[in-house]
Write a structure and sequence with these properties.
TIM Barrel, eight-stranded parallel barrel, 17 helices, magnesium, lyase activity, HpcH/HpaI aldolase/citrate lyase family protein, magnesium ion binding, C-C_Bond_Lyase-like
């Protein structure tokens, strides 16, 4: 699979200086962690779950979470498990040419992992892993032990020897509470480091974090406008997202809104990027659906060290992916910084002659940018996120 594969070849050629690269379930974890992009959550109770998965893959979704936790009522869990097993069995009967996203199951308990893997049988081959909720050091060990103990010889054969990954969700009240945050993050750091080869990414559960104080951000605001939440994100990245080889990929928080709401503040999208043709109507549609807030939050996610995003509605996928494409200017800067002859450091003027590129301090940024370019591609010099988003929304 690859990002923007749902677009016609000639459209991709007109948009990309370097087209997105291919990846799959067997790709290295480092690649998959970046490739996750907009991870679409879907309740496991959906009666046409298999059909929905295939449909979303056709619209550009490359990662999905089939949820057995907070998205469904406690009383629905047994039925949701049965439906999930049945729907994945239906998917496994489809032809080998059927395009599917990376699939993860969000469980409630460690015991569910063992039980579901057993019930799925050969259908486990469709899975890339599990999402682990309310993750702490105390809960984490049991989740990882369950994951590894469930991988018997039959499961390993069905998976073709590849591992099942885990994506812990950082959302416990102990992270919000100032007096327990550092100890909680230190404990999480110990347990994810112990099972580092199984951790694909760490996910931020901002909705649960807000619930500890009865908070909910309005559609005019981002997670970074809620200072209690912003402080947690900063500390999580500080301790778990370092670029020195000890860190993990950390994904952006969910955006909750997808239909129009009464607006209190001015729109956050400038007119100039949308000043021609159909782009003007695109700007209007984005503002009407409060997608300008989502776009701003995606940019702030990246500025704060996060990659990808949790999504609860298909309309959020295209904006996340459009803003994940590396711009031609970013790519030029990254390539210049990583030129072999510049290994000794120094400062150089950017190819766009509008900024300073300092080789040693900007190296980690450049390496991260080129990893993103591998899976999301590089836009042509005259192509912005507006053209990428418009093309995605036309399909």
């Amino acid at each position: 699979m690859r990002h923007f594969e749902h677009l016609p070849g000639e459209v991709r050629a007109s948009l990309f200086h370097q087209e997105p690269g291919e990846f799959g379930v067997d790709s290295p974890a480092r690649t998959l962690a970046v490739a996750l992009g907009a991870t679409l959550y879907c309740p496991a109770t959906r009666p046409r779950l298999a059909e929905d998965i295939v449909k979303q893959a056709g619209h550009g979704v490359v990662s999905m979470v089939l949820c057995l936790e907070d998205s469904i009522d406690d009383a629905e869990v047994p039925g949701a498990e049965e439906n999930l097993v049945r729907q994945l069995a239906e998917l496994s009967r489809l032809g080998p040419g059927t395009q599917l996203p990376l699939l993860f199951i969000r469980v409630r308990t460690p015991e569910q992992i063992v039980d579901l893997i057993d019930r799925l049988g050969a259908g486990v081959r469709l899975l890339s892993g599990f999402v682990l909720p309310k993750f702490t050091e105390e809960r984490g060990g049991a989740f990882f032990e369950a994951l590894m103990s469930a991988e018997n010889a039959q499961v390993t054969e069905a998976l073709g020897g590849r591992p099942l990954f885990a994506m812990p969700v950082l959302e416990s009240p102990e992270l919000m509470h100032r007096e327990t945050r550092t100890d909680t993050l230190s404990g999480i750091s110990r347990i994810v480091d112990k099972y580092r080869e199984r951790v694909l990414a760490l996910r931020l559960g901002v909705t649960d974090l807000c619930s500890a104080y009865g908070l909910r951000r309005a559609p005019d605001m981002t997670a970074y406008d809620v200072q209690l939440v912003a402080s947690v994100i900063a500390d999580v990245v500080n301790m778990l997202g370092r670029a020195d080889g000890t860190g993990f990929t950390i994904t952006g928080p969910v955006w909750e809104y997808f239909t129009p709401h009464e607006r209190m503040f001015k729109p956050q999208l400038r007119i100039s990027p949308f000043s021609s043709g159909r782009a003007e109507s695109l700007r209007t549609a984005l503002i009407e659906h409060h997608m300008d807030g989502l776009l701003r939050e995606i940019e702030l996610d990246r500025a704060n060290g996060l990659q990808g995003k949790t999504c609860i509605h298909p309309t959020h996928v295209a904006p996340v992916h459009a803003l994940s494409v590396v711009s031609h200017e970013e790519f030029s800067d990254a390539v210049d910084i990583l030129e072999p002859q510049r290994g000794g450091g120094g400062v150089l003027r950017s190819s766009y002659t509008n900024k300073m590129n300092e080789v040693k301090p900007h190296r980690a940024w450049a390496e991260r940018t080129l990893r993103r370019a591998e899976v999301f591609g590089v836009a042509r010099e005259d192509v912005s996120f507006v053209e990428l988003l418009a093309a995605s929304l036309r399909t």
